[in-house]
């Protein structure tokens, strides 16, 4: 098994670029408040108009652009599974400009999208949340129907003639090349999305996958650990739409299974979860980097439940718990109102991470949460070292933990232990800077204790 991804600085930059792209899509569509095309897709050959040909060429160029800019996540076994599964589900193309290919992007947001030339993308964040291969098949089966039914073209032809506030929707408004990407990510009309769900479910069943996993897929995506409105109203994160999809897929499944050999339908939970283990660990890291520690904690807890004796999974749990800092870990489990979720999201937008932390630390609740979270993290780091004394990353975590507690000497000891075990660590310069700062604090007698 081989895992390759660019260094963390490039990965972080890629995540920011993708996030900006998705945010631009959200803002663009929210600004125009367009009702996307209703009706049905077209599943026969479809001749393109001149303007559509240009847009399609630009969309096709995204395949190379995504690769060149490091958006693609490289994991040979997982890429093979996604491509192999997608190939089982994709119908024979009706047009020369459609060629199905399947890719993974590194993004902790749970999403999948398809461009009209047959490019299908699924994020690491979604792969990490899925329970089994049948849910992966349901996701990909849905996506290929968008290309098979020419949903991008159908929607474009409807929208480009709509005039709203004096603006004509189309490439001149949204930017050449952005149109198909934005609509693929944000989703199409309710009718087209439901059409893709229903046709995709039939395709998954014909390929041997269990469609009874489809409602569960949407239930997984309903979870909101952060207690915020979705950052992006994408088709795989829009909660009202997900509720409707759970309802009609539950109603649809019994009819699909009439006459089917249900005993031999593919689910493959254990094999799938083993294969996505590395990706799930990366997703914990990405959630922490993006300041979504509750989401990181949810995923890390699952990893530990799957393999409690694995020190790497324990390390992910410790890092996620430490990242919570002064926050409680139950925000998403409460029945928050939309107003409360919007307020939480507004705080994320208006305040920096440090400012949010400082505000929480000024409250008794925040101080209490910090104590609980850091103690839980310490126990997890200790467990890591118990399972594997050579896991130097636990020393790094303990170093940051002691820094948060205002114990510079203990922090310095742990950082030194980390660098001694990992002299060529990628974050060596960062840890050395921490040690210099600790040395200055000790010389000045500065601690928070």
How would you explain this protein's 3D organization?
The protein is mainly α and 449 residues long. Strand 4 and strand 5 form a beta hairpin. The strands form three sheets. The protein has a three-stranded mixed β-sheet. The protein has helices at 8-32, 50-68, 76-89, 124-129, 133-148, 151-159, 171-174, 178-186, 190-206, 214-222, 239-256, 269-275, 277-289, 293-306, 311-324, 338-350, 353-361, 364-387, 393-404, 408-421, 428-444; strands at 3-4, 74-75, 101-105, 112-114, 119-123, 163-164, 167-168. Helix 15 (311-324) runs antiparallel to helix 18 (364-387) and helix 19 packs antiparallel against helix 20 (408-421). Helix content is 63%, strand content 5%. The chain has three domains: 3-270, no CATH class; 291-375, no CATH class; 392-449, no CATH class. The chain is elongated, with a radius of gyration of 24 Å. The protein starts with a strand and ends in a 5-residue tail after the last helix.
Largest sheet: 3 strands, mixed
Q: What structural class should be given to the helix and strand makeup? A: mainly alpha
How far apart are the first and last residues' alpha carbons, in Å?
Answer: 47 Å
Proportion in helices:
55-70%
Order of helical and strand elements: EHHEHEEEHHHEEHHHHHHHHHHHHHHH
> What is the percentage of strand-forming residues?
under 5%
Residue stretches low in confidence (pLDDT < 50, at least 5 long) are 1-38, 163-177
Radius of gyration: 24 Å
Report the average pLDDT across residues. Answer: 84
What is the count of structural domains?
3
Beta-strand segment tally: 7
- Total number of helices: 21
Q: Globular, elongated, flat, extended or rod-shaped: what is the shape? A: elongated
Strand order of the largest sheet: 3-5-4
């Amino acid at each position: 098994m081989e895992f390759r991804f660019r260094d963390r600085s490039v990965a972080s930059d890629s995540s920011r670029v993708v996030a900006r792209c998705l945010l631009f899509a959200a803002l663009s569509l929210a600004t125009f408040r367009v009702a996307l095309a209703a009706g049905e897709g077209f599943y026969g050959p479809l001749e393109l108009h001149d303007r559509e040909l240009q847009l399609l060429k630009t969309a096709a160029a995204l395949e190379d652009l995504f690769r060149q800019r490091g958006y693609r996540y490289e994991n040979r076994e997982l890429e093979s599974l996604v491509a192999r599964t997608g190939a089982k589900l994709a119908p024979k193309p009706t047009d020369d400009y459609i060629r199905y290919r399947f890719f993974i992007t590194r993004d902790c947001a749970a999403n999948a999208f398809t461009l009209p030339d047959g490019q299908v993308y699924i994020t690491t964040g979604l792969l990490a949340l899925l329970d089994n291969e049948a849910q992966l098949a349901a996701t990909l089966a849905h996506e290929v129907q968008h290309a098979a039914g020419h949903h991008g073209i159908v929607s474009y032809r409807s929208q480009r003639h709509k005039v709203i506030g004096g603006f004509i929707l189309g490439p001149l408004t949204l930017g050449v090349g952005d149109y198909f990407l934005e609509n693929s990510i944000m989703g199409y009309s309710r009718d087209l999305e439901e059409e893709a769900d229903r046709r995709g479910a039939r395709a998954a069943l014909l390929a041997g996958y269990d469609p009874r996993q489809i409602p569960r897929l949407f239930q997984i995506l309903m979870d909101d650990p952060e207690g915020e409105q979705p950052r992006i109203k994408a088709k795989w994160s829009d909660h009202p739409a997900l509720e409707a999809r759970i309802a009609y897929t539950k109603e649809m499944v019994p009819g699909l299974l009439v006459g089917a050999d249900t005993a031999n339908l593919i689910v493959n939970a254990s094999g799938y979860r083993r294969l996505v283990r590395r990706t799930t660990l990366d997703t914990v890291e990405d959630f922490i980097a993006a300041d979504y520690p509750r989401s990181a904690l949810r995923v890390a807890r699952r990893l530990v439940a799957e393999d409690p004796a694995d020190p790497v999974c324990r390390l992910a749990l410790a890092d996620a718990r430490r990242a919570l800092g002064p926050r409680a870990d139950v925000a998403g489990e409460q029945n928050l109102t939309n107003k409360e979720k919007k307020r939480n999201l507004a705080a994320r937008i208006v305040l920096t991470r440090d400012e949010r932390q400082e505000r929480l630390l000024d409250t008794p609740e925040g101080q209490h949460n910090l104590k609980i979270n850091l103690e839980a993290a310490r126990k997890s780091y200790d467990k890591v070292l118990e399972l594997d004394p050579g896991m130097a990353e636990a020393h790094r975590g303990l170093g940051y933990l002691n820094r948060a507690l205002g114990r510079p000497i203990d922090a310095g000891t742990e950082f030194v232990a980390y660098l001694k075990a990992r002299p060529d660590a990628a974050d060596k310069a960062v840890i050395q800077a921490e040690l210099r700062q600790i040395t200055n604090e000790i010389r000045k007698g500065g601690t928070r204790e």
